[in-house]
Amino acid sequence: MEIKQMKYFVEVVKNGGMTRASKHLYIAQSTISKNIKSIEDEFNVTLFDRRKKHIILTDIGQIFYDKCVEALAILDDLSLEMDDVTNIERGHIRLGVSAIMDVRLFTESLNQFHSMYPNVTYEVVEGGGKAVEFYLNNDEIDVGITTLPVDDDIYHAVPLYKEKLMLVVDKNSKYAKQSAVYLGDLKNERFIMFHDDYYIKDQIIESCRKVGFHPKVVAKMAQITFIENMILDGIGVSILPESIVSILNKDITGIEITGADVNWNLGIIWKKESYINYVTREWINFLKSYR
């Protein structure tokens, strides 16, 4: 049985006969009659009492009519829901974001997108770049914001922004009044770093190796607030993106670093050959222009 056959049958009942139904549907009466007969043959039932002058449903015909009305209403609702999704009227975006990113860029862009599409909902999980990739690989999120570059055999990537990595110390540090610090001069310092899920840790260690030392890591963690307090307490120094430095306690300062890879690149990534829903694609396109 086809959907159009159900529609023909319902129209016949609503219009009180095949003649009116054919005019309403703009199709031949014989076409309607043939399709209703096909339903009866398929289910081996009689839908109308044809002995009567007017259209009269049989008992099974009445049951079939009620079910057809119910099914067609569900299909209409489904059609509206699909239209909503394709027209970005509603939808759901699952995001993975890095804890060490320009939060203002993210929230401001999300606010603008949400003002355009207020019925869209969001699910945001936070973690290091390695965690974001794990979530993508396990289809727990649709798109992530993380450190670039990534493996281009696995992910699509769109750059968002680039910023400096800076030495972060308290204002009483011997480095605080310097305009720049050579990375190699930090070989005797104790470093407070993000934990192993974060690519920034790998980048810093590799940069230190290139200038001749391996950093002494006194602590690894994932919370900016903890890193901030450990610096204030004199436990160690850290290296963080400039946008993060700008929101830290006023008693903490950032100093430019020389002699190292001091650029921090963030971008949007999503898994190749995975399905991305309409609203998420629209959000990706929005971020491309927003940046």
If you had to describe this structure to a student in words, what would you say it looks like?
The protein is rod-shaped and about 105 Å long. By secondary structure, the chain is an alpha/beta fold. The longest helix is centred in the N-terminal third of the chain and has 28 residues, at 59-86. The strands form two sheets. Strands 1, 2, 3, 4, 5, 8, 9 and 10 form an eight-stranded mixed sheet that branches. The chain has three domains: 3-87, Winged helix-like DNA-binding domain superfamily/Winged helix DNA-binding domain (Arc Repressor Mutant, subunit A, Orthogonal Bundle); 91-160 and 266-290, Periplasmic binding protein-like II (D-Maltodextrin-Binding Protein, domain 2, 3-Layer(aba) Sandwich); 162-264, D-Maltodextrin-Binding Protein, domain 2. The mean pLDDT is 89. Helix 1 crosses helix 2 (18-25), helix 1 crosses helix 3 and helix 1 crosses helix 4. It is 43% helix and 24% strand. The protein has helices at residues 3-15, 18-25, 29-43, 59-86, 103-116, 129-137, 199-210, 224-232, 242-245, 278-290; strands spanning 91-97, 120-126, 143-147, 155-170, 180-182, 190-194, 216-221, 238-241, 252-258, 263-271. Belongs to the LysR transcriptional regulatory family. Keywords: DNA-binding, Transcription, Transcription regulation. Residues 1-58 form the HTH lysR-type domain. It comes from Staphylococcus saprophyticus subsp. saprophyticus (strain ATCC 15305 / DSM 20229 / NCIMB 8711 / NCTC 7292 / S-41). InterPro entries: HTH-type_LysR_regulators (IPR050950), LysR_HTH_N (IPR000847), LysR_subst-bd (IPR005119), WH-like_DNA-bd_sf (IPR036388), WH_DNA-bd_sf (IPR036390).
